[in-house]
Every structure is written in structure tokens, then in C-alpha cells.
Design brief:
Layout (H helix, E strand, L loop, with lengths): L6 E2 L2 E2 L6 H9 L14 H6 L8 H12 L6 H10 L4 H13 L2
Antiparallel strand pairs: 1-2
Helix pairs in contact: 3-5
Amino acid sequence: MPRDRAYKNGDIGVENASIESIREALNKVQTEVENPKIEFTMEDMIKYGLVDTKNASELRGDVGKILGIGYGNAKQFLNRLNRYGIKREEFELAVNKAKEGK
């Protein structure tokens, strides 16, 4: 769950989240794939502006929130994309949605 959804009066924790925020987080739960396929490479990260751009960090955060895999630096984020079995179509939709929100 994103921190901003579980923050109240200086305290961070799921107990501070609304029921709707908890449901939304549960709907986005990703589990690790036992034998992950390498679907994404660093070239994909570059192609979609998730590294080597002025707002790459922010974009990774937004895409991670949409996909339910959280924020990570470029290497961590790439690992999560593959480890959680994110599909290319799902990824591309998330990137487009994140870019439209800016």
C-alpha cells in the first residue's frame, strides 16, 4: 500500500488506511512467479523513459503504483517486472496511464 494512503497524524500504517484503500491495495497484489521469464530488459526501461530521463524516478514510482509492485531504482524495478510476471500489455497500459497523468 502506498504510504500516502496509510498516513494519519504523523503515523504510517495500514490501520490508518481507509477500507477502500485497503481493498484497492489487495486488488493489486502481485505474487512472485516460481520460474520467472525474462520479459523485460534494460532496453525496455530506456525505451519507456524509466531510466536516463529527468522524471524517470517519478515515472517508475507512478508505474509501480499502478502495477502494484511499488517503487524501486531502475535495477530493482526491472527485477520486479520480471519476478512478478507482469505482462507486456499490462506494463504498456500502466506506462501510458502514468504518462497521461502528468
